Fold:
Amino acid sequence: MNIVRIHKNKVNSIERRHPWVFSGAIISEVETFKDGDIVTVCDHKDRFLARGHFQHATISVRILTFEPVDLDQEFYNQKIQNAVELREKLNLINPNSNICRLVHGEGDSLPGLIVDFYNGVAVIQCHSIGMYNSIELISEALKKALGVSLTAVYSKSSDTLPSRAEGKDVYLFGECLTPHVAKENGVELNIDWITGQKTGFFIDQRENRFLLGKYARNKKVLNTFCYSGGFSLLALKEGAELVHSLDSSKKAIALTEENIALNDFGKKHQSIVADAMEYMKELPEAYDIIVLDPPAFAKHRDKRHKAIQGYKRLNAHAIRQIKPGGIIFTFSCSQVVDKFLFTNTIIAAAIEAGRNVRILEQLHQPADHPINAFHPEGEYLKGLVLQVD
Ligand code: SAH
Structure:
């Protein structure tokens, strides 16, 4: 097996179970290794440390185990069984909801692997070539862990792998027509993993949508960056007076409208195709609740400053214009903007808008998107519920 030997100053990080080896930590020759090779990570004296997937990239090894075991069918069976058991304990698949994340990369000790579940269908998304090379093992492990509740497995990795890997999007087991109807918090959703963004839906906002529902009765709501309308649907289910859903993508708005129709909420809903940053400058009407859930403004640290300016501007517009006593659900999914920086940015926006703002709730990613304690980089979604006096 290929050996990756690492610098003695970098051993500490792996002994603390951080699951990544960066290229700068490697002291052995790896040029001949192929992307996706299974490698053993050793210290400078050849002592075993870990085993994982190699890739020619800044993150050179994604560690799957700190034990000297094979990454075979049995290994994946065990890991995926553990991941499924956690979701079962959390009762995430029930008559009201049948959408959840089954595997969340490092959070489930399977770096490079995402598996989302939509009412019987598992959608696999690989972020490393090593994981992609293992999809048959992963698919088998999913079948074993889920039994008859699994009707199909779809692999969608063409967007998330480097282009040299030529990831193919195919069914590995069964088949399912899309859009496929699934449920979250009692509302029905059309899910299309083939044409949709990511695996088809933003599962990470499930609990936060539920919370919005609690605030929504008789309220007038503006849901910006709505994608397929998840927040809008919960607000309408819980008795909002009117909901406006806004996205710059016509395709996203078409998805929202299909979901609104599916639940028969059309009478109290209107959609708006617009750039949210522009639209928020001067709202044509006043709202009781505004949801701000933009895409990651910064994917890298060097874009962080610009991202913060973006969050500040967007939130200042909302705080300035919301009705007295109004509520803002504001989010950031940029991993490089941590919760302290995000909160400070919102405080800066409140100062700029010149209104009194209270933080009512602090929001985060749900338990099916767990954070590996040894991999703090896994924390990405944070949000605040604000009340503007
Ligand atoms: N809130 C959504 C997920 C948001 S994903 C949910 O609950 O599912 C981010 C969305 O922002 C995408 O749909 C994307 O089309 C949209 N978007 C990106 N830039 C935008 C912009 N400048 N103005 C409005 N929408 C934008």
Notes: Residues 202, 205, 225-228, 230-231, 247-249, 252, 275-277, 293, 295 surround S-adenosyl-L-homocysteine (CB under 6 Å). The longest strand covers residues 357-364.
